[in-house]
Write a structure and sequence with these properties.
It is a single chain. This protein has 103 residues and is mostly helical. The chain is built from seven helices and no strands. The chain has a domain at 43-102: 434 Repressor (Amino-terminal Domain) (Orthogonal Bundle), CATH 1.10.260. 64% of the residues lie in helices and 0% in strands. The termini are far apart.
């Protein structure tokens, strides 16, 4: 059960944050990492990064808004129509897409 405000204040008053931080550094140096996070990069974001474009530049190249590209990369929205074809090319051969759209 979560602690209420008063219980949190009482608990925190007894903590030695400096010592906790030092211990965390010691643990890391000793190879005892507590939590490891991994970030999965979408194929679209990976393709964009391979050709060295920012999200803004890539969105402009595809003819979509920055927000639309971000939502595609984060998997919140799915592209449709011609965008699907451009994205398929971007994932398989981003350099070719860049050459085609730059011409």
């Amino acid at each position: 059960m979560p602690l209420d405000e008063k219980e949190l204040l009482e608990r925190d008053a007894k903590r030695n944050i400096g010592e906790e931080l030092l211990q965390a550094v010691r643990d890391i140096k000793a190879g005892q990492v507590g939590r490891i996070s991994t970030v999965e990069v979408s194929p679209l974001a990976s393709a964009r990064q391979r050709i060295g474009l920012s999200q803004s530049e890539f969105a402009r190249m595809l003819g979509v808004s920055l927000r639309t590209l971000q939502e595609w990369e984060q998997g919140r929205r799915k592209p449709s129509g011609a965008a699907k074809s451009l994205i398929a090319i971007a994932i398989k051969d981003p350099e070719t897409l860049q050459k085609l759209l730059a011409a």
